[in-house]
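Q: Convert this sequence to structure tokens.
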Amino acid sequence: MESVAPIFSFNIGGFPINITRDIIVQWAVILILGIAAYILTRNLKRVPDKRQVVLETLYTTIEGLVKNNMGESYVGYIPYVGTLVIYLLVLNLMGIIGIAPPTQNLSVTLGLGLTSFLVINYTAIKRNGVWGYTKGLGEPFLMMLPLNIMERVMLPISLALRLFGNMMAATMLIEMIYEALGSIGMLAQIGAPIIAHGYFDLFDGSIQMLVFTMLTIINIKMTAEHH
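A:
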């Protein structure tokens, strides 16, 4: 696949680093979102204009998501959850502008899954201490230790595979639709795929973002309070 083939490579200490199209797309998204966040959050006023109303609506939506599913004590995770929502949504919707979503690349979703894994377990250790966290792995009784460890390890993998599988399937179906329409004629590819993009990119991409985010925030709370 084009998105997996390296555009250029280099070595660090003998370890090869491959820069793929999906990595470059992610860098571009991060840069654009960073610039947009800086510009849109400048000169905020007590009496909000239309731009600020949209920003405040977005913030209160994320705030409600965190408070309703995690509780008041987790409000510090609003920036992380908000970043996850916006970043994942943008990546998943790239197909609308004709760019294959980076989330149809397993290495990308594994990276996102690993990030959630680190946040989940860091929170549990921070709230319970190293001993409390370790002790919790043996609950409700010591024989559950191997299963609890396996559950922790499998979580980022399941998150990654779920997101990857759905986005890969959506991307392949869109490509098949274009190929089928292309066999009819070039004009058939104009306008006809709008419904497919609306479902597989906009609807399914939004759903997969929500599923990944919800599983992350629920596991942050459950893992921290299980101990």
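The beta strands are 6-12, 15-20.
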